[in-house]
Amino acid sequence: MHAMQYEITLPADYDMGTIRKRVADKCHLLDAHPGLGLKAYLLRERGLEGSPVNQYAPFYLWRTAEGMNSFLWGSGFRGLSADFGRPVVHHWLGTGLTSGAGSAGGAEAPTPATATRETVRLPESTDPAEAVERALAELPAHPALHTAAVAVDPSRWELLRFALWHGPAPEDVPGARYQVLHLSRPELDRLPSGRHW
Question: Which of 30, 51, 73, 193 is the most buried (most CB within 10 A)?
Fold first, then answer.
């Protein structure tokens, strides 16, 4: 599993309705993309849920590197880059996944309402394997949880915790908060649960 996200930060007075329309018009294009576990179309609005910015920040869990590559080198990412400029794409190696209520069920399953994402730099004194094991053990077991993932960027030794939630994210879950506009999940049921090594 590969986790991936890019963030497009927009002006403070940007009409976020433009992003909502873009997602509504284009979200179906990845609903059957081979190799894609899920794509969460995420939005942050300045002044809501503590966000200091307006931001469009899609998040992906890829089942295969081939699926990820076909997206990055294909027309979808080219179109986004043509409209907004080419964003930095953050990439983490998946280390674990857990599913909550409502994560199965295909396209007809309810779309999660919110997402949280936390990144933590692992100090040199920290054993990365132990940090990953702790993060996996701490994956939330909450009735509102849809899906949660842990991943690591070993080039920066950065640990990622990402979760999708039915309804508002629990207040005690740290990290940036997002609205979920749509969830493409063509191969979510094929992503392995638990530890990924």
Answer: 30
- DSSP secondary-structure letter at 122? P
What's at 59, amino acid-wise? Answer: F
| Ramachandran angles phi, psi of 195, nearest 5° | -70, 140
Closest CA to 162 of 144, 188, 135, 137: 135
Cα–Cα dist 151/101, whole Å? 21
How is domain 2-195 classified at the CATH fold level?
Alpha-Beta Plaits (3.30.70)
Sequence spans of domains, the chain: 2-195
pLDDT in tens, 82-129: 999 999 999 999 999 999 876 665 556 678 999 999 999 999 999 999
Distance of alpha carbon 119 from alpha carbon 106, whole angstroms: 29
Task: List phi, psi (to 5°) of 73.
Answer: -100, 5
Low-confidence residues in the chain, pLDDT < 70: 102-109
| Nearest-angstrom CA–CA distance, 13 and 190 | 41
Q: Which residue has the tokens 């998946």?
A: 94
Q: What is the pTM of this model?
A: 0.94
The residue type at 13: D
